[in-house]
Amino acid sequence: MSETELIRLKPRRIRMVCWSAAITLVVVFALVATSLSGPTGDGYGSFQRGDQIAMIGLGVFGALGFLMFTRPRVEADARGVRVRNVISSYELPWEVVRGIRFDRGAPWATLELHDDDLLPMIALQAADKELAVEGVRALRRLHQEHQARLAERAIGR
Predict the structure, then answer these.
(1) In sequence order, what are the residues at sequence separation of 6 or more whose Cβ sits closer than 8 angstroms to the Cβ of residue 101?
(2) Measured in whole angstroms, how far is the alpha carbon of residue 147 from the centre of its chain?
(3) Which tens digit of pLDDT belongs to each residue from 45-102?
(4) Which of 12, 26, 124, 149 has the most CB atoms within 10 Å of its CB?
(5) Contact (CB, 8 A) for 21 and 66
C-alpha cells in the first residue's frame, strides 16, 4: 500500500435494509394519509388536509430516522483512521490504536486503543460477511505498516 492510499468502508446490507424500510414507511404513511377523511370515530371532529400532510410528514421523519443508520463509515490512510458511527465521529492517529478486533459473535469490528478503550466501527458489520472481513484485513495491514515505520524510525535513531 502506498502512502496516499485511502481505504473507505461502508456497510452494505444495513444500507439496503434501511433504504427499503424508509421507502416502505413513507408509502405506508402516505396511504394512511389518503384514507384520513371525513369525521373522526366519535363524530366530534373531522380530518382536514393538514392532518393528511402531518401524517405524510411523520412518515418522512420516520424514514429519516431509518436513514441515520446508513451513516456509518470508516476511512483510513497512512496517517490514521476516521470512524463515523450513527451519532458520533472520531479521527484517530495510528499511534493511539493498539489493534483492530473483530471477535467471534460480535456484531461489528472495534478499534482497541492504547488506553484500553474499545471504539466500535459500525461500518464493519458481521452481516456483511466477506466485505467486513476484507475491510478488517485492510485496516490491519495499514496499522502494521504504521507500526513497521515506527520501528524503522526507532532503529534509525
Answers:
(1) 109, 110, 111, 112, 118
(2) 27
(3) 777 888 889 999 999 999 999 999 999 999 999 999 999 999 999 999 999 999 999 9
(4) 124
(5) yes
The answer to whether residues 3 and 78 touch, using CB atoms and an 8 Å cutoff, is: yes
- Can you tell me the distance from the alpha carbon of 138 to that of 85, in angstroms, rounded to the nearest whole number? 19
Widest CA span of the chain, in angstroms?
86
For the chain, the first-to-last Cα distance in angstroms comes to: 25
Contact 125, 108 (CB under 8 A): yes
| Contacting residues for 140 by C-beta, under 8 A, at least 6 apart | 99, 100
CA distance 136 to 124: 8
**Residue 11: exposed, middle, or buried by beta-carbon count in 10 A (0-12, 13-18, 19+)?**
buried
User: Please, what is the angle between helix 13-35 and helix 49-67, to 10°?
Assistant: 170
In this structure, are strands 7-9 and 89-93 parallel, antiparallel, or unpaired?
unpaired
